Please model this.
Amino acid sequence: MNTLNTRSCVVHAAQNVKIEQQELQYNDNDIIVKVSHGGICGSDIHYYNEGHAGLSVIKHPMVIGHEFSGTIYKAPTYSNLKIGQKVAINPSQPCQKCQFCLSGKQNECTTMRFMGSAQYVPHIQGGFSEYVKVTESQCFPYEKAKPEIMAFAEPLSVAIHAINVAGSLVGKKVLITGAGPIGCLITAVAKTAGASEIVVSDITENSRLLALKVGATRAINALDKDIFVSYADNKGYFDVVFEASGSAAAINSTVPVTKPNGIIVQVGMGVNLTSYPVDQMIVKEISWKGSFRFINEFETAVYWLENQIIDPTPLITSKYKLDDAEKALITATDRNISSKVQIYFD
Model:
């Protein structure tokens, strides 16, 4: 067994994150990636601020991060990977054996090991480390894009999957509630997918301006009830709604503004509803669908980023060195100034 010294961003509990020297153990058959850039996700923020993300609670120190890119530092000679090759890393590690994996629904894997997750004990360590051990199936080579752009491959996969859940958007009127990084990426994908009109709502001006930069035709204040009332006239205005905030108020607002036989795709997580306009949903025969992570969309995301089909550059609001990871997490928490905050390791 070989060892490699690596510095990592480790969360111990709420408000307790440290940059620690660790030893990464590996053998001759392992693949090691030298990490270049990592994007802070909402789950990373929850782990830092609250010590948990949903039901996944920090029970021992864990390296966070699941949105990252890097270069191959070590690979066995029989693999298709070469030292120095640039790669985007898919953090999903499905078992490929359960009934869901075998039916092509890997995002529903019963034993999914997702990097930077406290779902299991021991936790699955994440990618905010100078060096990370991965499998070959997690590595997606690319050539032209900048590493900070390719660090968007994972969240862009989530956005593409949400559009796939909705079906064709060609000529459709679309509403996206929540203009965080995922909401903005859904906006960019919806534009690419042929939506005729894309309205985005959010409570922060910064997020609304970013939504306009990535393809929204209109950005509205989510607190402006009069606008939502106008969109609810004549049984609704939108063909498809993507709810990307996880806010109970936003979720409840989607049914009135959706046309009969329309589709609502629920992407935002973390809220238990105490009320929901079920009667309206039934009368208007609206389909309410969940969208969870992604399946094979990661490959598409890498291709789109490599070929500039989607440009997430406007969403990068700040970058921090690994030593300043706590500052990065604090900054990422403030949505009045931040969208996607990145950590760089070079």
Remarks:
- The chain has two domains: 2-152+312-344, 159-290.
